[in-house]
Amino acid sequence: METPAVHLVLLAKFAGVMLFIAGSGASLLAKTREERRRATHQIASTGLFIAWCGGFALATLSAIPLTELWILLGLGLSLAAHVVVVTAAERGAGRGHVIVFAALILGILAAMIFRPVFGA
């Protein structure tokens, strides 16, 4: 059932995802270590936190268990993507960081679109 609360949470989650992607992209493209660190820790980390909170709220409002395979994949892959960005912020971003980050984001999208479940 879609209520105004669900729509507000969806909007917040979308904003969080956009912040995460924008901050990660800025970090991977930044020239200096300070710019990479600022984009990673102030923008991408905040976006990931908002997206995760929104996801937990949506699961709760929709009575979806957090143990669904597609939710666990989304959490794990988004955490791995953030680790790649944090590593790139500290060591300098290379082509490998960008490729791995893009692959992880595609994996997250696939999990959210196809929604695999345990035992299916």
UniProtKB/TrEMBL annotation:
TM spans (from-to): 6-30, 42-64, 70-89, 98-118
Lineage top rank: taxon: Bacteria
Keywords: Membrane, Transmembrane, Transmembrane helix
Protein name, UniProt field: Uncharacterized protein
Organism encoding this protein: Nannocystis pusilla
Lineage: Bacteria, Pseudomonadati, Myxococcota, Polyangia, Nannocystales
